[in-house]
Amino acid sequence: MDISHIFHGPNSGYVLELYERYLRDPDSVDSSTRAIFDKLRPEIYEEKQSEITQHDIDKIVATANLAQAIRAFGHLDADIDPLGSPPPGDPSLELPTHGLTPEDLAVLPSSLIGRPVSDKTDNAYDAIEELRKIYSSKVGYDYYHINSLEERKWLREAAETGRFRPPVDPINEKLLLENLTRVEVLEKFLHRIFPGKFRFSIEGVDMLVPILNEIVGIAAETGMRHIFMGMAHRGRLNVMHHVMTKSYKGSLIKFKDPVQERDFRDYMGWTGDVKYHEGARHAIKNGREIEMQISLSPNPSHLESVNPVVEGMARAAGTSVNASGEPKFDPDVALPIIVHGDAAFPGQGIVAETLNMCRLPGYTTGGTIHVITNNQLGYTALPGESRSTLYASDLAKGFEIPIVHVNADDPEACIECARLAFAYLNKFGKDFLIDLVGYRRHGHNEADEPAFTQPEMYKIIDDHPTVREIWAEALAERNIMNRDEADELVNKYNEILHSDFESLTPEDLPEEALSTIPPAGAAQKTITSVPAESLREMNASLLKVPEGFTINPKLRRGRERREAALANIDEKTVDWAMAEELAFASILADGTSIRFTGQDAERGTFSHRHAVLHDFNTGQTYAPLQHIPQSKAAFEILNSPLTENACIGFEYGYNIQAPDRLVIWEAQYGDFINGAQTIIDEYVVSARAKWGQTPSLVLLLPHAYEGQGPDHSSGRMGRFLDSAAEVNIRIANCTTSAQYFHLLRRQAGVLEIDPLPLIVMTPKSLLRNPLIFSSLRDLSEGTWQPFIDDEMSNSQAKSVKRLILCSGKVYIDLIASELRKQNAKDTAIARLEQLYPVPTTLIQKALNRYPKLKEVIWLQEEPENMGAWMFIYPFLRKFIKGAVPLHFIGRRRNSSPAEGTASMHKVNQEALLKQAFMIGKQLPNIDELGITWVKNV
Ligand SMILES: Cc1ncc(C[n+]2csc(CCOP(=O)(O)OP(=O)(O)O)c2C)c(N)n1
Q1: Dihedrals φ, ψ of 437, to 5°?
Q2: What's the whole-number mean pLDDT along residues 852-866?
Q3: Ligand 1 atom nearest 340 alpha carbon
Q4: DSSP alpha helices (H): ranges in 172-305?
Q5: Beta 369-374 vs 432-437: how paired, if at all?
Q6: Partners of 664 in the beta sheet?
Q7: What span, in angstroms and rounded, lies between the C-alpha atoms of 431 and 418?
Q8: Residue 18: band (very low, low, confident or very high) from pLDDT cuts 50, 70, 90
């Protein structure tokens, strides 16, 4: 007889399972369960029916439901706030909600709650209480948002067996006290000696340091080769000293204000950065062998911006690229750990952008451990002002990341969470989050008065013992260490700090990064040409596909054209995509690996690249650059997630960790680079000056005024030119496919000897315009030209009156124009292919070639306040030295980069070209147009 209908409710499945077990073997369940099920046995069901009431059944199901609620929502009742605020609770955790009383539970079997809790309890009441102790203790296990049953089971088992928790998994209690003492003493020492100086103290979340050390220790035992850490200001100094093992003197000297010791900038040879942004590396050794390297990435103030950088570093460390084909990724090589702020985690979009990468091919790192140092404040803002969610960590739920909320005043609970985090990551290769709930002992910084805004909270904090004091007390109660011994530890570390401070000399200023800046200039000497025969062979290899692979018919013609394209060495047959592919093939043949990412990068936004072919019949993919026999290194090209800031941050980190690989990111349209302004400003263009890092990341930004509107025209080159200074970046805007070929090859050639980020304004319609096509000879014999003067002869140059200087696509518009033919004799046109570093000597040389010059014009498509003009103007003035007038022609100053309609674009573009050729005269209707001619600037 089927009696399943009598079990109902969310846990009916579990009760049924128990019942079936009982049917197979009545002894497999405990005696009280057996007594209940005896009443339900089919053969005696009818007979005993009168004895089983619906009431009994309801109580069984209600008990199972209660147990389920505690497992899922017990964290809402957990004691996670050291400051003692009551937990929010939840009605599902209360007996009356389920129609239960303690008496009901006392007569029910504990097996209704399940193992392992049922094994150590006699009835359901005790089992429920036991369950509460686990799920509503100082740890709130928050994992019911995980979809995988296997993972949920594993997490439940880990929580309920307590296998990562002391005493099951013991800790060295004394050592923990020693560590907490070092953490606290450092902060208090700095507070005393340098009152009011910012250090963004860890106090209140001190357990961060032991948590990190626990993870580092287990990771090293497991055989991880790298840990990459990212964190903001909070507690960073303490982590530097007690996780990264930096010497105290290194920080103490900086607190003393080194400018008094010597000229800081001269000494460091770079701009440097404040002490709480510095990075560090620490090698854990076994004898002479480095077992594991821990790297703390430098980071700017911009909270959370370091997240993708750290992920990129870990991905690079775990990826080997030494053989041709696809790169190989090993998730067990590197572990990323990211420490977040409780206000920043939900607030900064880059957090979600980075979390979204966690399982993407080409981006996953095999899991990250996240720690939120949750001090319940963001500067002066309360949680209710910083987020719309209950927990600071709730964003992580959407990515199915298990979360533990842990009271930062319970050291054992914190250590359990660290172990659990690593064990889960190690088993499932996925992220884990520890929400370390503490408080902030001082103001946002140590000069702030927190009681201005949180008077009540700070009354509690002022009276609240430190976690070291709490733990010392616990050890005294456990007779492990008496109070005097604990005080001795405080004295010991105070004395160490004192003696370090007293013996400081100027030589204690850290010297890191001094030697990391290589001399610039090697790029100019790089040979980028490739023998014609090699290029022909590579082209042939690139056009091959596996037996039986059906290419999309629409791509066939182009490929047939390419088969014949290199027959004649002087014919201009090489378009942009072909030049790019040949550049990549030759770079791989030179042994340099390539990673290329961007939105829809595989096909290319403009459907020009097709680096990954899709079989027309089966959809199977084939990337020729992974199969050419000439290649000696791995190639990967990936369609990135629809993200700019985190994607560029990721590639930046990848590039920093693997400087010998060519790393390229392509924007869908150049404008979207503004979504990554933080990473550009804070890392790409300034990391060298601030932290001595030497990125060589390539950014390809489609940039062309073609009537597509304000948002698809500009790669915002002005933004990069704004930040171009010293030796920090190269910016190119090239006009032939050969130039692009040589530019890419030059970048790959100097990755390790003259690395700089390379920003390239790339074409849109010009991708297919024969005026930019190059010949095989241009590739095999040419070189990168930062500036290209008019091709006219020197004798023709003698009659030139006007020199038009420009950059990029407007040059092609000029030479394609009818007006050009009419003005061929007296007008020369020269193009700046490299905007930064400015090729000063070449421009100067060109100016000297035109003795009868009457005027120089800077022509650009962009508005006067955008493009290259504002940047290049002072250079041009200096070169010309007032000898001839300098005019500007371009779109008018504008708040938006381009016209909103194609028709207005056309009118303005035509007017622009007309004005460019109207020597000495102004277009009659110029005032009505969107362009401007600024005379003799
Ligand atoms: C992107 C960004 N916006 C604003 C700030 C200024 N700021 C510095 S710390 C801070 C509060 C951060 O709070 P939280 O994330 O909780 O970290 P905590 O300082 O409390 O550890 C703010 C707003 C910043 N550094 N970065």
Answers
A1: -90, 115
A2: 96
A3: 15
A4: 173-193, 208-222, 236-242, 248-255, 264-268
A5: parallel
A6: 596, 698
A7: 13
A8: confident
Pocket test for ligand 1, best of 236, 305, 374, 444 (most atoms within 8 A of CB): 444
Place 431 in a pLDDT band, splitting at 50, 70 and 90: very high
Beta bridge partners of residue 227, listed in sequence order: 294, 335
CA of 433 to the centre of ligand 1 (A): 19
CA of 594 to the centre of ligand 1 (A): 36
For the CA of 440, the closest atom of ligand 1 is: 20
pLDDT value, residue 91: 97
Q: Kindly report, residue by residue over 618-671, the tens digit of the pLDDT.
A: 999 999 999 999 999 999 999 999 999 999 999 999 999 999 999 999 999 999
Residues in contact with 647: Cβ distance below 8 Å, sequence separation at least 6, in sequence order: 308, 353, 597, 598, 640, 641, 665, 676
Protein residue whose Cα sits closest to atom 13 of ligand 1: 378
- Three state DSSP letters for 543-606: CCCCCCCCCCHHHHHHHHHHHHHCCCCCCEEECHHHHHHHHHHHHHHCCCCEEEEECCCCCCCC
- pLDDT for 261 equals 46
Q: For 285-325, give the DSSP string.
A: EETTEEEEEEEE----SSTTTHHHHHHHHHHHHTEE-SSSB
Q: Which of helix, strand or coil describes residue 276? A: helix
Residues 6+ apart with CB under 8 A from 827: 800, 801, 802, 803, 804, 820, 917, 919
The string over 413-428, giving b where at least 16 C-beta atoms fall within 10 Å of a residue's C-beta and e elsewhere, is bbbbbbbbbbbbbbeb
Q: Encoding tokens for residue 454?
A: 């949180």
Which pLDDT tens digit goes with each residue over 668-691? 999 999 999 999 999 999 999 899
Q: What is the pLDDT of residue 397?
A: 98
Q: Say how many Å lie between the first and final Cα of the chain, rounded.
A: 98
**Nearest alpha carbon, ligand 1 atom 17:** 341
Q: Do 436 and 373 form a contact (C-beta atoms < 8 A)?
A: yes
Structure confidence at residue 506 (pLDDT) = 76
Give dist(CA 54, CA 52) in Å, integer. 7
Long-range contacts of 502-508 (CB under 8 A, 24+ apart): 503/249, 504/249, 504/252, 504/253, 504/256, 506/253, 506/258, 506/261, 506/262, 508/247, 508/249, 508/250, 508/252, 508/253
CA distance 369 to 882: 61
Beta strand 289-296 pairing with 635-639: unpaired
Neighbour count for residue 545 (Cβ, 10 Å): 15
CB 783 within 8 A of CB 527: yes
- Ligand 1 pocket test: which of 302, 303, 306 has the largest number of ligand atoms within 8 Å of its C-beta? 303
Q: Which atom of ligand 1 is nearest to the CA of 374?
A: 16
- As a whole number, mean pLDDT of residues 74-103 equals 97
pLDDT (tens digit per residue) in 876-893: 999 998 889 999 999 999
Note whether 709 and 899 are within 8 A (CB).
yes
Q: Which residues line ligand 1 (CB under 6 A)?
A: 234, 301-303, 341-344, 348, 373, 375, 377-379, 444
Residue 522 to residue 790: CA distance in whole angstroms: 27
**Hey, what amino acid is at 395?**
L
Residue 522 binned pLDDT confidence (cut-offs 50, 70, 90): confident
Which residue's CA is the nearest one to ligand 1's atom 1? 302
Contact residues for 31 (Cβ-Cβ < 8 A; gap 6+): 109
Three-class SS state of 437 = strand
**What's the rounded Cα separation, in Å, for the pair 826 and 797?**
8
Q: How many angstroms separate the CA atoms of 739 and 745, rounded? A: 10
Collapsing DSSP to helix, strand or coil, 931 comes out as strand
Residues, the chain: 937
Taking the centre of ligand 1 as the mean of its atom positions, its distance from the CA of residue 275, in whole angstroms, is 17
pLDDT score recorded for residue 266: 46
- Give the Å distance between the CA of 451 and the centre of ligand 1: 18
Is residue 699 helix, strand or coil?
strand
